[in-house]
Amino acid sequence: MENINEALAEDRSQYLTIALTKGRLADQTMELLEKAGFFCEELKNKKSRKLIFTNEEQKLRFFLSKGPDVPTYVEYGAADIGVTGSDIIMEENRRVYEVLDLEFGKCTMCVAGPESARDLLQHHERIRVASKYPGIARDYFYNRKHQTVDIIKLNGSVELGPIVELADVIVDIVETGSTLRANHLKVLEEVCPISARMIVNQVSMTMKAQRIREVISLVRDVVNAEKKETAGPSALS
Amino acid sequence: MSIHTPDSYHELLHTPDGVRDIYGSENARKQLVQSRILDAMHLYGYEDLQTPTFEYFDVFSREIGTTPSRDLYKFFDTDGNTLTLRPDFTPPVARCVAKYFMEEKDPLRFCYQGSAFVNTSSLQGKLNESTQTGVELINDASVYADAEMIALLIECLRKAGLSEFQISVGNVEYFKGVCQAAGLDEETEGALRDYISGKNYFAAEALLKSRGMKAAQRDEFLRITDFMDDREALKRVREATGNDRSRKAIDRLIDLYSAMESYGYGRYISFDLTLLSKYHYYTGVIFKGYTYGTGEAIATGGRYDGLLSYFGKDAPSIGFMIQIDSVLEALQRQKICINTDIRIEKISYRPETYQTCLQQAMELRRQGIRTILVPEKK
Predict the structure, then answer these.
(1) Does the interface ipTM go beyond 0.95?
(2) Is residue B57 within 8 angstroms of chain A, CB to CB?
(3) At a CB cut-off of 8 Å and minimum separation 6, what does A71 contact?
(4) In B, which residues are within 8 Å of A12 by CB distance?
(5) Same structural domain for residues B367 and B311?
(6) Of the candidates A77, A98, A100, which has its C-beta nearest B295's C-beta?
(7) pLDDT in tens, A53-91
(8) Is B364 found in the same domain as B312?
(9) Whole domain around residue A23: which residue ranges?
(10) What residues are paired with A44 via a beta bridge?
(11) A106 partner at 20 to 30 Å CA-CA among A83, A91, A209, B325?
């Protein structure tokens, strides 16, 4: 992070730097940005080994990073703007401005487990919870359910937890539920809806107010227009 | 995890997370920046004030509205009282002033510098002990006091070597006025405060919607998010504001802007009505200083007209604090050099020349030249 920061330091004031989340979210973000009038041709070359992609004309810079790192880059000002899932933003709990709900990458943060575990959630008894999101899991059980839990941090294939009896339930994002079904697990409770968010660095919001506000308002117009389209005219009132 | 070494003393060399040693040229830069900032404060007639590093816990309690209790370093004295390392200077200064200047009605000006301590484990690269330099202006409710504060902050930052920075100014009263007019309960207002200060307007809108607020009223509420960089923009917001309390808040900012122009510092100012603070003791004008190279504000301040009354003195006050560590980081990232070249004269001696070398060294020191005596290498 330090190096990128150094490299960007010189013309930090001229460029807007945008951190994207590697993978499908990055493609969806670029699609949205293009509709709003912001482009980056370099980014489309999938074979490129570059780490930073520039649009000299619009003075934009993009880089790809792992989701959980996006709020970090933005908090420290290494990127002015970032786009990542609200699950990650909640978990990382960084000091950034969360300015837009981009309305894609939608899924739900859930408590899941075997049907037999449903009863364990009805009482305040101590249970074991496996999750990639220990922060969100703790907040949900402590502050909303007032239930004492042991939280076990896992780094992937969280569904394995209840199967091998490492944990009673898991807290994870559920998109279609097919992984859960294949492993005979069920959504037991919904924690909160998740979608992609645009976040902004606190300093950039003031120092580059005009440019950032322009990006926000153009992107917001596209998001709102699409929302109207999918919702249909009847849902507008 | 650190690499294991058989030398057990290696573990003794590390400082705990969030605190660190500062030495050499970095320390020289820090001292210089601090003294330049204090010089600027002294020029405005602010007097140095020292308060203890730790105080009774009650000075930072929830009612006073400072750092949350779990983020404080707490320990006990022999009588079982809870003591707290200061997380910021304003409540201790308020306590001190209430104690020693209880009857004083004229404006009082104090400046301070020192360490503040915040006990958060997940800061990841943030300091738990930070150096703060700040001022408090007590017994002055006027807009000229607000202007003096912001002008002084601008001069401090310029003296420190920064040229590109912005002071974002808001007024907590505007937000409170709108909440009051909308009849929001305390819980909703609290949640809203978090959303608005996080610029999370869609969440704020959803919250207001769920509380049954009508669309037109919601729109008026969310006008708070408009960005204002000049007087005209402020006037437009004033026109559209429906309640007295918020209108008065905007009037104050318009007056403040005029006063800032008298200082010739209008260009450093922009207005942001969503500026709220995690410190609940702020009551009116509030401001933050931003520059490139740091992820967050380098200076924060505001009016706290109610704080001293917790200590039994009714005194409108305003102050600000500069995060020295962040200023240094910004200077370094912006590649702004601070000339700290300090020459140290070396005189080498042998036992037989010690007498004359010492005389030489003493003479140089008398002239103000830093001098050290070193044994001559064989």
Answers:
(1) no
(2) no
(3) A82, A84, A88, A89, A92, A94, A96, A199
(4) 292-293
(5) no
(6) A77
(7) 999 999 999 999 999 999 999 998 899 999 999 999 999
(8) no
(9) 2-105+195-236
(10) none
(11) A209
